[in-house]
C-alpha cells in the first residue's frame, strides 16, 4: 500500500466514523454503512481516485448532516414550539409539592435559522391559587438558546422596572448547542430598579461559575431525557435605602440539547436543599 492510499484510507475512516457518530437515526447509520461497504469492496480504485472520492464523499456527508442538524436545533426546543404548554412542578426542601409554574409559548417567529418566542408564565401554589405572572422572550440561533432570566421576576415588579437597552441585552442565559462535560458556560446578570410603595430599590441578579458537571437520565410523567447537569452560583442583592440584603444559592439544572431545561435544584450557601422543579407535563 502506498503512502497516498494509506492517507486516503485514514482520512476516509476518520470522517466516516465522525459522521456516523453525528447521525441521529438508525436509518442514517444503515445508509452510511452501506455506502462505505460498497466503496471498500471496490478494490480496483486507483490511489488518486480513492483520495478524491473520499474527500468528496466525506464533504457531502458532513454538509448534509450538518445542515440537517442546524435546521433542527432551534425548532425542537419546547420554547420555540407555538401554542405549547409546559408545566414545571415545584417542590419544597422536603420534596412536597409547593406549586406549579405553567409556561405558554406563543408568537414564535422564524428568521432564517433564528427563532424567537414569547413565554407567558403563571405560578400557582399547592392549592391552585394564582400567585404571580411573568412574561419573557426566548431566542435561539444556530442551536444556541438564549433564555430570558427575567422570567423569575413577578409581573407587577417587571412593570415598574426601569430598564435601559444595555441591561435588556444582558438579561439572557446562554446554552450552547455543543455541550460537553467540563465545559465552562457564560455568566449572566440582570439589574432592575423598582419603586415599591414610593420607596425606590434596586435588585442585582447574578449567575456565575456555570459549568457542565456531568450527564444524567431524567424521567418524569412527561418523558425521559439524557440531560447535561449544569451547576452554578446564583445570587441576588436587593438594596433599599442604602442597605443591601444579599442572598446566595447554589443551583443545579438539567438541560437537554435541542429540547430545554427539565429539572433544577437549589441549595443554600451552607448546602441545605431549598427546593426543586421538574418538568411534569408537556402539551403541544
Structural class: alpha+beta
Query: Distance between the terminal alpha carbons, to the nearest Å?
Result: 57 Å
Tally of DSSP β-strands: 12
Number of helices, where a helix is a run of at least 4 consecutive DSSP H or I residues:
5
Based on the coordinates given, report the CATH architecture of the largest domain.
Beta Barrel
Mean pLDDT, all residues? 74
Overall number of domains: 2
Shape: globular
| Major sheet details | 12 strands, antiparallel
Poorly predicted sequence stretches spanning 5 or more consecutive residues: 2-41, 43-72, 154-169
Integer-rounded radius of gyration: 24 Å
Short description:
The protein is α+β, with helices and mostly antiparallel strands and 284 residues long. 26% of the residues lie in helices and 49% in strands.
Can you characterise this structure?
The protein is an alpha+beta fold. The chain folds into two domains: 3-72; 78-283, Beta Barrel (YmcC-like fold). It contains five helices and twelve strands. It has helices at residues 3-22, 26-41, 47-73, 155-160, 165-169, and strands at residues 85-92, 97-111, 114-125, 130-141, 144-148, 172-175, 188-196, 199-220, 223-240, 243-256, 260-268, 273-283. Strands 6-5-4-3-2-1-12-11-10-9-8-7 form a twelve-stranded antiparallel sheet. It starts with a helix and ends with a strand.
Amino acid at each position: 500500500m502506498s503512502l497516498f492510499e494509506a492517507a486516503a484510507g485514514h482520512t476516509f475512516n476518520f470522517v466516516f466514523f465522525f459522521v456516523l457518530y453525528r447521525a441521529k437515526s438508525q436509518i442514517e447509520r444503515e445508509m452510511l454503512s452501506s455506502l462505505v461497504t460498497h466503496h471498500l469492496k471496490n478494490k480496483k480504485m486507483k490511489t488518486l481516485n480513492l483520495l478524491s472520492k473520499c474527500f468528496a464523499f466525506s464533504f457531502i456527508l458532513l454538509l448534509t448532516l450538518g445542515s440537517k442538524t442546524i435546521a433542527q436545533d432551534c425548532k425542537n426546543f419546547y420554547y420555540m414550539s407555538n401554542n405549547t404548554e409546559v408545566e414545571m412542578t415545584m417542590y419544597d426542601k422536603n420534596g412536597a409539592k409547593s406549586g406549579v409554574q405553567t409556561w405558554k409559548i406563543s408568537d414564535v417567529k422564524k428568521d432564517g435559522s433564528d427563532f424567537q418566542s414569547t413565554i407567558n408564565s403563571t405560578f400557582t401554589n399547592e392549592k391552585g391559587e394564582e400567585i404571580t405572572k411573568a412574561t419573557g422572550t426566548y431566542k435561539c440561533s444556530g442551536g444556541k438558546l438564549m433564555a430570558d432570566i427575567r422570567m423569575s421576576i413577578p409581573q407587577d415588579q417587571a412593570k415598574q422596572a426601569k430598564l435601559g437597552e444595555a441591561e435588556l441585552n444582558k438579561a439572557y442565559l446562554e446554552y450552547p448547542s455543543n455541550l460537553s462535560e467540563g465545559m465552562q458556560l457564560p455568566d449572566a446578570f440582570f439589574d432592575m430598579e423598582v419603586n415599591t410603595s414610593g420607596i425606590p430599590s434596586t435588585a442585582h441578579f447574578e449567575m456565575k461559575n456555570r459549568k457542565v458537571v456531568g450527564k444524567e437520565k431524567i424521567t418524569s410523567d412527561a418523558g425521559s431525557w439524557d440531560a447535561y447537569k449544569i451547576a452554578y452560583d446564583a445570587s441576588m442583592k436587593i438594596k433599599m435605602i442604602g442597605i443591601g440584603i444579599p442572598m446566595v444559592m447554589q443551583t443545579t439544572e438539567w438541560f437537554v440539547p435541542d429540547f430545554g431545561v427539565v429539572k433544577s435544584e437549589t441549595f443554600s450557601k451552607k448546602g441545605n436543599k431549598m427546593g426543586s422543579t421538574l418538568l411534569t407535563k408537556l402539551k403541544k
